[in-house]
């Protein structure tokens, strides 16, 4: 127990010493020393301390030989400290200020990378995902031969998949709500909403790997929509559902949902045969 108490006392003394050293540097008017200390903090992974010093120094160092490095280091410190929103803005500030600077390529990439790190799970608002895709596209436009090209491209595909998944989850939710009309006060139905959402997703993302899943939702929704239709729309909607089932089988002959499509066709024919 005595050994642990001694170790804890030494640790606390070291922490107190480090804190007092940082406070002393923070208050000093020797900006060159403060800048070197900020660089040391960054190198040692003390990103919060580095940020505190660099936020003051970026203004002081403006116009000096250290200006570019100072601003870029601040952005990287924020990124490493997982303050991705601030990091993306600081990287953007660097790139706008020094479009041909020594860190311009990296800064342009990390605008998108910071936004990428801050994107939410697919069910939530995807504004930051759209912004990240746009940032990576800008990076590829300005630096088409960059060594970071493959990583940026992979990130764009990954983020696009997230947008597709959000659309799929929305369409699936409409389908699962089915006959519930509580959210259809302005007319229409959940099945119609599922069809529209799925078709729009396929138009926007025609090469998505989830194409078959959207097609399944469209087919099932058209059948269910026909089944619950009023008399004057019933026949046309069953014909539309039947056509959709045939189209599905033609496009996905090996699908696990083929039997479902064949079952729907049989039921549709019972209605349309007359």
The largest β sheet comes out as: none
**Fraction in helix:** over 70%
**Count, helices:** 12
What is the first-to-last residue Cα distance? 91 Å
What sequence of helices (H) and strands (E) makes up the elements? HHHHHHHHHHHH
Q: Can you walk me through this structure?
A:
This protein is an all-alpha fold and 274 residues long. It is built from twelve helices and no strands. The protein has helices at residues 2-27, 31-43, 47-60, 67-80, 84-97, 104-117, 127-142, 149-177, 190-204, 211-227, 231-251, 258-272. The longest helix is centred in the middle third of the chain and has 29 residues, at 149-177. The radius of gyration is 29 Å and the shape is elongated. Mean pLDDT is 90; it is low at 2-17.
Keywords:
single chain; 274 residues; mainly alpha; disordered N terminus
Layout of strands and helices, then pairs:
Layout: H1 2-27, H2 31-43, H3 47-60, H4 67-80, H5 84-97, H6 104-117, H7 127-142, H8 149-177, H9 190-204, H10 211-227, H11 231-251, H12 258-272
Helix pairs in contact: 2-3, 3-4, 4-5, 5-6, 6-7, 7-8, 8-9, 8-10, 9-10, 10-11, 11-12
Briefly say what this structure is.
By secondary structure, this protein is an all-alpha fold. The protein has helices spanning 2-27, 31-43, 47-60, 67-80, 84-97, 104-117, 127-142, 149-177, 190-204, 211-227, 231-251, 258-272.
